[in-house]
Every structure is written in C-alpha cells, then in structure tokens.
Design brief:
Elements (H helix, E strand, L loop, with lengths): L5 E8 L2 H13 L5 E14 L2 E15 L3 H11 L6 E6 L5 H11 L13
Antiparallel strand pairs: 1-3, 1-4, 2-3
Length: 119
C-alpha cells in the first residue's frame, strides 16, 4: 500500500458507546472519512493464558494508509484495553467517486468543518 491509498481500519472495544464516541472524534479530526459501527460483536480471544468470550463493539473506518499510524497512536492512548485490537487492510477496488471522497476527507490540511454528503 502507498501512503494515500484507501484502507479499512477495524477496531474493537469492550464498550460500544465508547467506541461510537471515539470513532466520531476520528471523523471530526479527519483521521477517517467514515465510521461504521457494529454491535454487538461476540469476541473470543486468549489474553494472558485465559480464554475470554465477550460482547464488544466493532468499527470499520475508511481512511488513507498514511492516517493509520495516527489512528493506532490515538487508540493506544485512549482505548480501555491495554492492547487495543486495531488492524488495517487495503481497499483494492470500489466506487471511484466514494474512494475519491475518502481521499478528499482525510487529506492533510483539510478544514474540520463537518458536512453531510447527502446535501
């Protein structure tokens, strides 16, 4: 992936409401163009030798590859888990107009004014 290529970042968290507020802040700060929150998500994982089954929230963020380090840093600083689950994957294809919008909304130096794409 190159720095300006679109990608999807997935984050999970134990509190879906916290994740919604967190993802809104990422949109407001132009670290991602959109956030799609899913809840509940049934997570099963091993942590320090014990297996956990928990209901969590999950968000899918659409952004640029060069925004991922900032998203990871923000999650590591603010997330309730000691090791937040944050992963990124490339978006290889899609609606060119949508992908251009993602690039525009997350480009460095853009203002933080929020607008509705339906307008």
């Amino acid at each position: 992936m190159t720095a300006d290529e679109p990608c999807e970042v997935v984050i999970t968290a134990p509190d879906p409401e916290w994740l919604k507020v967190f993802s809104r802040q990422l949109v407001e700060d132009r670290l991602c163009a959109s956030a799609h929150n899913f809840t509940p998500v049934q997570s099963i994982y091993r942590w320090r030798g014990k297996i956990y089954e928990r209901i969590e929230g999950r968000v899918s963020l659409h952004t640029r590859r060069d925004r991922v380090p900032d998203i990871v840093a923000r999650a590591k600083n603010e997330h309730p888990y000691e090791v937040p689950g944050v992963s990124a994957r490339p978006i290889n294809d899609g609606n060119p107009d949508y992908l251009a919008w993602v690039a525009q909304e997350t480009a460095p130096g853009q203002s933080t004014e929020l607008t509705d794409p339906e307008e």
